[in-house]
Design goal:
Strand order of the largest sheet: 8-7-6-5-4-3-15
Order of helices and strands: HHHEEHEEEEHEHEEEEEHEHEHE
Strand content: 15-25%
Number of strands: 15
Number of helices: 9
CATH topology: Metallo-beta-lactamase, Chain A
Number of domains: 1
CATH class: Alpha Beta
Largest sheet: 7 strands, mixed
Shape: globular
């Protein structure tokens, strides 16, 4: 090998190592921490915790199939359909906080702001470019954030459904910890992640299913969901949950991430009826039936909850499953029309007045993806 070739090979190796180093930078911190001490003792007292992990109530629930080969094959087969054909419209207008009533602003994927009786609750905020422990690799967002996180305005509570990267984002949590006075409401164990990210323990409230916390006049309660957790190879070391937000001015159900299970009638009987339900409708696959709702199941769950207006979440922003990009909302509208369920499909960044929801505007039919990198 000539000296020039050796130099070229060395330069290429150095570049590759540099890229790997960049991809790995910050990954350890983003993965969070394992619960220990008093926090772990409390987890062990939960009826949902046994043998060192949390469990779904329905025994035999499969968090993931033993092999993902079929899923990967569907990814390859459907590559062209998983991204939209035109620009994704994003509404970025500044709005003053709503002093009364019930309003929902969808920021994409599962991130939303609920304004209820003057209380502002931010759900599963993910503002990073990628939902990954590294901002150099992993699923990249398909649209810009509607507004910088620092300009969302006053946030009274941050509500987290579980610790997967597309729902719990280190950078977003750290920004909210320094720019707001919000309390962080999380399922059991997730406080360990927040501890190492610098969130004061006095601002973290961990809840088991059935437990809650008052944020002004709004009661926020963790309820059962069917999913799993984990930010590395170890699974189910923290709990997952859906949430009920209830105040004098209305009731909200937030599914977070969940599969369909038989608990929705009971949740509706205890906490409903609801004015609006933010229901996951995307990132489904036949291999993940136990842990992700499909659109028809989201409609069925909304009916069983007495869930009121259905606002679809968990679609549009990240490519996380093999199905076509707009399929979740297309299937949802057919199922909802068949079952008589009201639906609002806002553009990313739109604020929905739940008492006067907008008419249907099929904006996704002309949406396009931002160039991927």
């Amino acid at each position: 090998m000539s000296r020039l070739n050796r130099i070229a090979v060395a330069a290429g190796a150095a570049s590759a190592l540099g890229a790997l180093a960049a991809a790995g930078r910050g990954v350890g911190a983003a993965m969070g921490a394992r619960p220990d001490g008093v926090r772990l003792e409390r987890m062990r007292r939960s009826p949902n915790y046994r043998a060192g992990a949390f469990h779904n109530r329905r025994r035999g629930t499969a968090s993931m199939p033993s092999s993902q080969r079929d899923v990967l094959e569907r990814y390859r087969a459907n590559a062209e359909t998983r991204r939209p054909p035109g620009p994704i419209p994003v509404v970025s207008a500044h709005r003053e906080p709503a002093a009364s009533g019930l309003h929902v602003t969808w920021f994409g994927h599962a991130s939303a702001l609920v304004e209820l009786d003057g209380v502002r609750l931010l759900l599963d905020p993910v503002w990073s470019e990628r939902c990954s422990p590294s901002q150099h690799v992993g699923p990249r967002r398909l649209h810009a954030t509607p507004v910088p996180l620092e300009r969302v305005g006053r946030v009274d509570a941050v509500v987290i459904s579980h610790d997967h990267y597309d729902h719990l984002d280190m950078a977003s949590i750290q920004t909210l910890a320094t720019t707001t006075d919000a309390v962080f409401l999380v399922p059991l164990g997730i406080g360990a992640h927040l501890d190492v990210w610098g969130v004061p323990g006095s601002r973290v409230v961990e809840c088991d299913w059935g437990e809650g916390h008052d944020v002004g006049p709004v009661r926020v309660t963790a309820v059962e969901s069917q999913h799993f957790s984990g930010r590395g190879l170890r699974r189910d070391g923290t709990l997952w949950a859906s949430w009920v937000l209830a105040g004098p001015g209305g009731r909200v159900f937030f599914s977070g991430d969940t599969g369909y299970f038989d608990g929705y009638p009971g949740i509706g009987a205890e906490h409903g009826p609801f004015d609006v339900s933010l229901m996951a409708v995307g990132a489904y696959d036949r291999a993940w039936r136990d842990i992700h709702l499909d659109p028809e199941e989201a409609v069925r769950a909304t009916l069983e909850l007495d869930g009121g207006l259905l606002l679809p979440i968990h679609w549009c922003t990240f490519v996380l499953a093999p199905h076509p990009w707009a399929e979740p909302v297309d299937r949802l509208l057919v199922a909802a029309a068949t079952e008589g369920v009201r639906v609002a499909v806002p553009r990313v960044g739109d604020r929905v007045d739940v008492a006067d929801p907008p008419g249907l505007d099929p904006w996704w039919e002309t949406a396009a993806v931002v160039a991927q990198g």
